[in-house]
Design goal:
Layout lengths: L35 E2 L10 E2 L4 E5 L2 H11 L2 E4 L5 E8 L4 E8 L5 H15 L3 E10 L10 E4 L1 E4 L3 E3 L5 E3 L2 E4 L2 H14 L3 E4 L9 E6 L1 E4 L10 H9 L3 E5 L2 H11 L8 E10 L10 H19 L1
Parallel strand pairs: 3-6, 3-7, 7-17, 8-14, 9-15, 15-16
Antiparallel strand pairs: 1-2, 4-5, 5-6, 7-16, 8-17, 9-12, 10-11, 13-14
């Protein structure tokens, strides 16, 4: 019943939407991508966000800028104060909705927090970690090359015995089968290694190589060619091609997220090689490696979605 000053309803199962009450009141409808999917009738659970296709985590500003530019994403500030970069990308088969964010800091813990923010606000169907890494394989992981990984070896767990004897205990996790199949299909079509033209203007006439391979992940910044971490990873699996500080957090979060009711997203790691994890490690090639990694992600999208 409309009383002229308000709304009164009687009975059960009433639904009122897009209404305003009072002088000069207005209705502002949220864009479709902002709306949420509510719980099923009779369910006590909270409303869930509409699922997006790809949720991207970056760590460095160069990485976020590269992803933003390559995928044409636009900045969005969440009412809670979080910044996300969002957009749509057309593939031959579908239109992919993509959201990207940047962690507060390097490392596994901040990565897991960023993934949780993406899950709560966007519920992506696939997580992608995109950025730079340190190459530890002389033949494959040269500066500018890109490693696409569906396998992560977390090397940080260890036992320290008397006299400084360190025994590392690696944890190995692999992406879900459908993601592995998608990455395999990419390399079947583009070749192994895939040969791609450089994305920076200064590199446009040169090619870089894209390889599938394992990523070693831990909390250490590796800048020593003789590091025990490099020796351990080489013995653990000779196909570990690069190291980073975040992929272990991604794989751990994916495993622990499997307890939720919704489908657990898949994941993949795309790392451009910015250094060789030795004494020459620095920031000089971050832009090159980040741009190449972001471009490889764009080429992967038709296979992943």
């Amino acid at each position: 019943m409309n009383t002229g000053r308000g709304i009164s309803t009687h009975g059960s199962n009433n639904t009122i939407s897009n209404n305003a009450v009072g002088d000069h009141a207005q209705v502002v409808a949220a864009p479709s991508q902002e709306r949420t999917v509510t719980s099923a009738p009779g369910s006590a659970g909270p409303a869930r966000p509409t699922a997006w296709d790809i949720g991207i985590v970056t760590i460095l500003s160069e990485e976020l800028r590269s992803v933003r530019d390559e995928l044409k994403l636009e900045r969005h500030k969440d009412p809670g104060g979080l910044y996300f970069y969002r957009g749509e990308h057309r593939t031959p088969d579908s239109t992919v909705r993509i959201v990207a964010t940047q962690t507060q800091s390097q490392g596994q813990r901040s990565t897991m927090a960023a993934l949780e923010n993406l899950r709560r606000h966007y519920a992506p169907r696939l997580w992608v970690l995109v950025g730079v890494g340190g190459g530890i394989h002389d033949e494959h992981a040269r500066i500018g090359n890109v490693i696409v990984s569906t396998d992560v070896v977390y090397y940080e767990n260890r036992k320290i015995n008397p006299l400084g004897d360190v025994r590392r205990r690696g944890e190995h996790r692999q992406s879900p089968a459908h993601v592995v199949h998608a990455v395999n299909a990419f390399f079947a079509e583009h070749g192994t290694p895939a040969r791609i033209h450089g994305q920076l203007a200064s590199q446009s006439t040169q090619e870089y190589a894209v390889f599938p391979g394992l990523i070693g992940s831990g909390e250490a910044v590796v800048a020593d060619r003789d590091s025990d971490i490099r020796r351990y990873l080489a013995l653990y699996n000779e196909k570990v091609l690069a190291v980073d500080m975040e992929a272990g957090g991604l794989s751990q979060y994916w495993q622990e997220n499997s307890v939720h009711d919704e489908t657990n997203p898949g994941w993949v790691v795309v790392r451009g090689i910015s250094d060789n994890a030795d004494e020459k490690k620095g920031h000089a090639h971050h832009e090159l490696a980040a741009r190449n990694a972001a471009h490889v992600l764009r080429l992967l999208l038709p296979f992943l979605c």
